[in-house]
Specification:
Length: 296
């Protein structure tokens, strides 16, 4: 049991009820919790002690102490109900917005020009698979490629947001693969057709579980890598993105209303290569998360 010292000072309203944010420290994360609610928030289940309306019982084993009351945080304008929902972004999100050619070396390896503004395309959410499921080489595809990417999970509805405010709309992150039928993409490119089939087929978006926003203080400087059968194929850093996260969110929000749970995939570093049935893909984001998928 962790007890708050003194009276809560900072309150804000959610759709449900008035809550107070408190800050607690843990060995690995810092999180925010409501003192009068029982919510799963950033992966920690927090329960109100009914006797002490300033008390919190935190079920996570590594929470050490309550640090302080915190001031109103812009991202907390997302109602707590919604915040706990975006952890389920695969279920609640309505779209996957992808960015093409956001790393110079990747544009060069496929002989593509570097874009002067973000190049966006969409995948359907039916493309999602989670660990334990298999990437299926689509029938008729003879050149399935991996593209590892940092994903941004939108936390709050974003429309025409300026770059300076863009990070306030981030709810969290995920590590994703933008699986690409390269032969189908090449054919579409040559005919001036869209990439929907080459990029949006079933199982074309293997994705990690939700990563808490707090775990990534600077998403614009993160090692990102991918191995096939234990061999490193892609090894990059998000600092090499042509358009950083703030730019991408701002730009994308001028094209589409970004809604809570939507995913923005930020482009892939160089090293993409052909996959075969039986291959095993491992990918990682700094020391934050690793994923594994097999190909069939
Ligand atoms: O298929 C491509 O090369 C475009 C793309 O998605 C990326 O650059 O991440």
């Amino acid at each position: 049991m962790v007890k708050l010292k003194g009276k809560p000072k900072f309150c804000f309203s959610t759709l449900q009820r008035e809550v107070t944010l408190v800050k607690y420290s843990a060995t690995s994360v810092k999180g925010y919790a409501s003192a009068w609610d029982s919510v799963t928030h950033y992966g920690h289940t927090l329960c109100l002690d009914s006797e002490l309306n300033c008390g919190l019982e935190i079920s996570s084993t590594n929470v050490k102490e309550l640090v302080e009351m915190v001031e109103f945080q812009p991202y907390a304008t997302c109602p707590l109900e919604m915040m706990s929902k975006i952890v389920q972004f695969k279920e609640v999100g309505k779209k996957i917005v992808c960015v093409g050619r956001n790393y110079r070396e990747h544009a060069a390896e496929l002989n593509n020009p570097v874009p002067s503004k973000p190049m966006l395309f969409l995948k359907p959410t039916s493309a999602y698979i989670s660990e334990g499921e298999t990437i299926k080489i689509p029938k008729g595809c003879s050149d399935l490629n991996h593209e590892v990417e940092l994903g941004i999970v939108i936390g709050t509805t974003a429309r025409d947001v300026p770059q300076a405010d863009a990070m306030n709309y981030v709810g969290g992150y995920a590590l994703g693969l933008d699986m690409t039928a390269r032969d189908w993409q090449a054919e579409a490119k040559s005919k001036g057709h869209p990439w929907s089939v080459a990029k949006g087929f079933d199982t074309s978006c293997p994705i990690s579980k939700f990563i808490e926003k707090e775990k990534i203080p600077n998403p614009n400087n993160l090692d990102i890598w991918l191995k096939v059968n234990g061999e490193m194929r892609q090894s990059g850093n998000t600092k090499d993105m042509i358009f950083p996260i703030e730019h991408l969110i701002s730009f994308a929000s001028q094209c589409f209303t970004l809604e809570p749970g939507d995913l923005l995939l930020t482009g892939t570093p160089s090293g993409v290569s052909k996959l075969n049935s039986g291959d095993v893909i491992q990918a990682g984001l700094a020391d934050i998360i690793q994923i594994q998928f097999s190909v069939k």
